[in-house]
Amino acid sequence: MTPLQLAARIVSRSSIDNPADMVLRQTLFRRRGLSPSDTTWVSRAVFSYFRWERWLASDRPLESRIEDGMRLAARFAADPKAFSNDELVRNTLPEWAAAHMPITPELARAFQREPQLWLRSRPEFSEELANRLRDVQAGPFPDAYQYSGREDLFLDRGFQAGQFEIQDVASQAVGRICAPRNGEVWWDACAGEGGKTLHLSALMGGKSLIWASDRAGWRLDRLRQRAGRAKCFNYRAVHWDGSEHPPTKTRFDGILLDAPCSGLGTWGRNPHSRWTTTVQDVEELAAIQRQLLQNVADSLKPGGRLIYAVCTLSHAETSGVADWFTQERSDFDTLAVVNPFQPDEPPVTQLHLWPQDTAGNGMFIAAWKKL
Ligand SMILES: C[S@@+](CC[C@H](N)C(=O)[O-])C[C@H]1O[C@@H](n2cnc3c(N)ncnc32)[C@H](O)[C@@H]1O
User: Partners of 210 in the beta sheet?
Assistant: First the structure.
């Protein structure tokens, strides 16, 4: 099977129940013998297809449309001005999105660009990483690096030894905003596969303790594997289903709620989800986020910090949820945070990180202090 045929198979099998990124991952896993350059080509072909889908003529055969998508991606990369703001705003996102998030030409352009790959080094390996790996550039804050090479980093010996993680730069900003201090005890309540748990641990110098919970056991298994590789030992992984019963009676210095969300901020990296996410998802998830915030809030010590983060940009899930919590809980004060990308700007209580400003995913962060 040629790479083009493989890409067509992946596209045709992708659906609302089988997201393209999952089908791609599973297919490439089954075809581990594929050369790195073919693997990269197939990934780019599949994502370009969904990114440029609105431009593709539906009467052309699928393989031709995939090739057209690749040509559009190349044209946009070489000459972004060849595409007008109007056509980008009109075709980049589904119709319903305009009523739920501000869609500017800059955002549409950011979503059409091929995403950047970001690395986060453990602090003690930063210098080695920068010297050893080719095609890395220093990012906007310490330990963040942009990678523009074509190597399979999962095979890199530094990666396998846990010297660095692949982590989007906006996610790294969340850890920096948490800024856990040595000796504090934190709860990473929706820890998933541990991207932010590992970052919090590194920021604490591997000392003190982080409770990492999730409702998905398989995600916690991945977290344990990743923590082992990263030599992160100051965590406790526990099941928590999001209910009003926290996994422990501990009162925390800090809680990170990196809540499940509609993921609108990842539409650049994962364009298929533009066409499968619905208004209903946004509304249902906003209700879940409010509930989760309520359910974690009482586990903070007086003076403790609560950080709410979502990789989405819908009003309902961002300022909607944050304003609701501020109104609902008079025992919390809003806490102003510094934007790690703009450290000289005044702190804000609600921070939107836009993909066009960060070259990462879109992200929203709000913070409070328990009185
Ligand atoms: C945005 S992801 C977390 C990503 C993770 N913090 C990281 O940095 O890698 C949200 C997580 O919330 C979990 N989740 C979804 N619904 C939940 C619920 N009702 N209660 C608890 N966890 C939930 C999901 O399993 C998922 O791992």
Answer: 186, 235
pTM above 0.85, yes or no: yes
Q: Which ligand 1 atom lies nearest to the CA of residue 188?
A: 6
Between the alpha carbon of residue 227 and those of residues 147, 155, 195, 305, the distances in Å are: 22, 17, 9, 24
Residue nearest to atom 20 of ligand 1 (CA): 242
Residues with CB under 6 A from ligand 1: 171, 190-196, 214-216, 219, 240-242, 258, 260, 288
3-state SS, residue 105: helix
Q: Could you tell me the sign of the dihedral formed by the alpha carbons of 242, 294, 303, 311, in that order? A: positive
Q: What is the pLDDT of residues 159-198, one digit of tens each?
A: 999 999 999 999 999 999 999 998 999 999 999 999 999 9
Of 265, 234, 233, 251, whose CA–CA distance to 101 is shortest? 265
Measured in Å, residue 162 CA sits from the centre of ligand 1 at 23
pLDDT band for position 217 (50/70/90)?
A: very high
Going from the Cα of 225 to the center of ligand 1, the distance in angstroms, rounded, reads 17
pLDDT tens figures, 69-82: 999 999 999 999 99
Residue of the CA atom closest to atom 9 of ligand 1: 195
